[in-house]
Amino acid sequence: MFGKETYIRRRAELKKLVGNGVILLFGNNEAPANYPANAYSPFRQDSSFLYFFGQHRDGLVGVIDVDNDTETLIGDDIDIEDIVWFGSVDSVSNLASQVGVAKSGPMKELKSICNEALRLHRKVHFLPPYRFDTMIQIMDLLGTHPSQQREAASLELIKAVVKMRSTKEAQEVEAIERACEVGYQMHTKAMLTAKPGVTERFVGGIVDGTARSLASKVSFATIFSQHGEIMHGCPSAAPLEAGRLALCDAGCELDDYCSDHTRTYPVTGKFTQRQLDIYKIVEECHDYALKVARPGVRWYDVHMDICRLMTERLKELGLMKGDTEEAVRAGAHAMFLPHGLGHMMGMDVHDMEGLGQQYVGFDEETQPSTQFGTNCLRLGRRLEENFVVTDEPGIYFIPALIDDWRSKGHCEEYLNFELLDTYKDFGGIRIEDDLLITKDGCRFLGKNRIPYHPADVEEFMAK
Amino acid sequence: MFGKETYIRRRAELKKLVGNGVILLFGNNEAPANYPANAYSPFRQDSSFLYFFGQHRDGLVGVIDVDNDTETLIGDDIDIEDIVWFGSVDSVSNLASQVGVAKSGPMKELKSICNEALRLHRKVHFLPPYRFDTMIQIMDLLGTHPSQQREAASLELIKAVVKMRSTKEAQEVEAIERACEVGYQMHTKAMLTAKPGVTERFVGGIVDGTARSLASKVSFATIFSQHGEIMHGCPSAAPLEAGRLALCDAGCELDDYCSDHTRTYPVTGKFTQRQLDIYKIVEECHDYALKVARPGVRWYDVHMDICRLMTERLKELGLMKGDTEEAVRAGAHAMFLPHGLGHMMGMDVHDMEGLGQQYVGFDEETQPSTQFGTNCLRLGRRLEENFVVTDEPGIYFIPALIDDWRSKGHCEEYLNFELLDTYKDFGGIRIEDDLLITKDGCRFLGKNRIPYHPADVEEFMAK
């Protein structure tokens, strides 16, 4: 939690941007895993609620009446039996005053506030909900069925929140730096644990445990897999095999901010020549983005530059063929790179993704693509100073995709399916770092670099 | 997953017990943490769905038409874009046949099945939902508002499921034994990591990471705290302090079955005399339950025996006074033991708790108590062979409770508040093991005992 001035300032700015009506910012509740009292752990507060109201307790709703310039923190106080089970906690009134909110009230007051606003035909702003309990709450408060709520969400509120959260304050950047430091620990421990015979799950557990020991939790389900070609591959019970690559995509949440890094390395600690040939292309793409990212540059253009660069290099290896421009226009490169170059990162690892990719990553000038692969680019618009973005090119050999395209003849003029067939046991490679867009360029976030240049990887893993 | 005969047999038995109507067993869906695509991880399937349909994928519903003796696995197949992100998975039709289910169909078929059943005024059985997305699903299928669904749930189905899941099959006991072995690893690693200066969170991370490395996940949020008096104390960022006790209550889920153990030990590895005086009472209570648990014994009676034993011993220390029987009848012991002696354990760590404690832990003969403390006893009824229960007495010194009772004069004739005041910095002690009720007694589950006798603890921590 930052100082209370932060939240007072942010809410004042939000009121200015939204202009009128009543803003409801729903905090999250506990999420039952297998019965009501056994919740997923740790509790995850809603990021936008945190951004404006700063409190981590479950069962809270922030209300901002823009027209009357009042703010209320809604929530029920806990009783002595709760204290026995969960320890003492502050009253809702104290939680409110800690973040500069003058009023507080019990949950039943929220119903009155909504009824009154509806009676007076005032606009009630809420963000697109993603928790199903919040959807039921909104249905009961405002009469909108869950299936209609994404459309009923307030565009003014979404745009205001995106505008504010996109540009990171200095204290936010510092928090991300701290999260990246834990990310360094998570990844380097994985690199030192990975060796033939150790299971993927064992290494994944080390990564997760390190996040729990040094931060709050992982920022998303840890990917640690010899099947790097599966974008969200869970660690399996399979032992690591000499000759294969392991891909680790993992990050943490610390003090409400995320890290997100990917490294790919040989299980033995030594790359084969075939692995190195592909790895160096990914490395070159990764470093290219680093060189060109700066305010004013369209991230969509950087993504397309990288698709062309990758196509050029894959042609040199004989895996692609034909005219580079045409191949990329046809989306042939998506055989290897079926995702985007990067995404915003902040309080959410895909920052604000729940508010709608079209508002977070795109604008009038730059619209999302519908082409396979590029449709997964989560950020296209021009970079601005203090954006935090990930730079994460990858090359994958996905057997099901190779077979699918080959059977359809899709992009056959640009792809060498015979050679591709021999790569079906390759896996996939991704290298990912978190970048801060600075005044005139960009820089890595995190004090220590997780090794990624091949020589550094081999040296580190020999330890 | 067990062999398909297991699921065929269980569903046949369920049909016999329920007798008529259409049974819906909802599998779980992914649970979004901070935006729709960022789910809590790992995915947790519903236990009753698993018990009868055995499959771990999200988005499935099991349908058993009792009257027509047909079974259908409902779920939508995934497409090529899903395969890129999540890898290949079996078709729903394959998933069905793996567990001996003849029919399968897409999610939209479920709506037709429900409409038809409602049209014919047939009974549609479902269990009390605890996931909010399932509640929305039930509302959309059957027209029952989420707030009414717990009451609308089928008592016949609840009772049938409780009857079947309460008595563990041999293969289930074996699975629990394996989970207990990982529990041993989790706890002994914590004991060896805990020392002055190391943070609670660091040790908690080791526990969680071990569960992830060797099992699937923790079976509930790990408790590792110097404030053992907070029943569900999260690991904090505070460093461990010489002179204090650390309480670790943790378990894992492995192959769909849980473990759940608690140990309490001195941060330095050496008990003080004051700690030992309290510890030995808890140890004696723990071992008492072990001695008397057998088929036919009421767990409620064992709980009350232990309350009396604890009261006797606390009187010897001067912390309690007056007549033991009267003190326990008045609930004075709940100052020290505000929870129950133990609970059922199986696929859920509090097994079947979501189905309703009154059906799982109680019956006509033994009804739940409403008295503070004993109202937290989750199991009261007579033990049966192949029940799995936890044995977990504890003694806590809860400053807020001491102050609350003292200010009200509650049970003052049985409590020495002056002496209690000097224990406000003590914390709490709990010792917990998992027991299998055998033909003529009970036995510990798990091959290795996590040390708990004081001399064993001290010897182990000296390593």
TrEMBL record, chains A, B:
Co-factor requirement: Mn(2+)
Pfam families per the UniProt record, alphabetical: AMP_N, Peptidase_M24
GO biological process, one term: proteolysis
GO cellular component: cytosol
Alphabetically ordered keywords of this record: Aminopeptidase, Hydrolase, Manganese, Metal-binding, Protease
UniProt EC number: 3.4.11.9
The keyword Protease is assigned to this record: yes
Occurrences of domain Aminopeptidase P N-terminal (ranges): 2-133
GO molecular function ontology, one term from the record: metalloaminopeptidase activity
Catalytic activity: Release of any N-terminal amino acid, including proline, that is linked to proline, even from a dipeptide or tripeptide
Family, as annotated: Belongs to the peptidase M24B family.
Protein name in UniProt: Xaa-Pro aminopeptidase
Lineage: Bacteria, Pseudomonadati, Bacteroidota, Bacteroidia, Bacteroidales
